[in-house]
């Protein structure tokens, strides 16, 4: 079930060179019709999740809330359970949000596979993180398409009897284009690309605006060691990655 070519969230590049090779267990590529994951077996979380968002993905399907193990993981790998976060003090934090996949029941349900989650502080998940998700959907509803990457970084402990690593921060990177075709080749130095890095430990005020955490793409590349947007020619890539977003 590979994504349709015009929906491939990796057309701008594969930031960690993830591969669908079970020997590559900590950078294991899992393409799904709704989003693509680089999975980390030892952390039992994604390294990153990538998806494309435009208004056609947004509809009126209610949250399915059908949290469940991802049985598409290779045989023998630990499958995180829906109950593994219970009592941990952390939210099940969607990486590809439920709200970005509301055009059908199967598409919304896919966001509840446990490979799409990291342990998130509620003040992060329900605060600036969620506010930024809503902002991205507003851009899509205004006629834009977005390519989004997000994931965890750092290690401040584990939950689920040591199975699942709790990140120190969660980060996100977006590139925003008006709806159109041939997306990689119409990026210019004026194209909007930026990120956020949000603390995943106290103190964090749930009411902090997402813009307080806004950073350049370069800052997320430095944090994670990943290289985003490698399909964009180097000059333009460097320009948009170091530019500060002010909108
Ligand atoms: Mn969330
Ligand atoms: Mn880059």
Structure summary:
With 247 residues, the protein is an alpha+beta fold. 17% of the residues lie in helices and 24% in strands.
Could you walk me through the main structural features you see in this protein, from its secondary elements to its overall organization?
The longest helix has 14 residues, at 128-141. The chain has helices at 105-110, 122-125, 128-141, 217-224, 234-242; strands at residues 28-31, 36-40, 45-53, 91-94, 117-120, 144-153, 158-159, 164-165, 169-178, 192-199, 214-215. The chain is of the alpha+beta class. Strands 1-2-3-6-9-10-11 form a 7-stranded antiparallel beta sheet. It has 5 helices and 11 strands, in the order E-E-E-E-H-E-H-H-E-E-E-E-E-E-H-H. The termini are far apart.
């Amino acid at each position: 079930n590979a994504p349709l070519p015009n929906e491939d969230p990796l057309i701008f590049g594969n930031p960690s060179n993830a591969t669908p090779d079970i020997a590559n267990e900590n950078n294991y590529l899992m393409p799904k019709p709704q989003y693509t994951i680089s999975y980390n077996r030892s952390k039992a979380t994604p390294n990153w999740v990538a998806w494309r968002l435009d208004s056609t993905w947004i509809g009126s399907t209610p949250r399915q809330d059908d949290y469940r193990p991802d049985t598409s993981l290779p045989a023998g790998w630990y499958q995180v359970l829906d109950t593994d976060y219970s009592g941990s003090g952390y939210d099940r934090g969607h990486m590809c949000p439920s709200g970005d996949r509301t055009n059908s029941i199967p598409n919304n349900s896919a966001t509840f596979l446990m490979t799409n989650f990291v342990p998130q502080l509620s003040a992060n998940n329900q605060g600036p993180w969620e506010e930024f998700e809503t902002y991205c959907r507003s851009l899509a509803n205004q006629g834009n398409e977005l390519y989004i990457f997000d994931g965890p970084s750092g290690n401040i402990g584990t939950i689920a009897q040591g199975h699942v690593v709790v990140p120190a921060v969660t980060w996100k990177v977006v590139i925003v284009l008006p709806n159109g075709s041939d997306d990689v080749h119409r990026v210019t130095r004026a194209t909007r690309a930026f990120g956020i890095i949000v603390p995943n430990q106290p103190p964090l005020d749930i009411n902090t605006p997402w813009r307080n955490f806004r950073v350049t793409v370069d800052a997320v590349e430095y944090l994670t060691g990943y290289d985003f947007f490698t399909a964009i020619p180097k000059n333009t890539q460097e320009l948009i990655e170091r530019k500060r977003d002010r909108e």
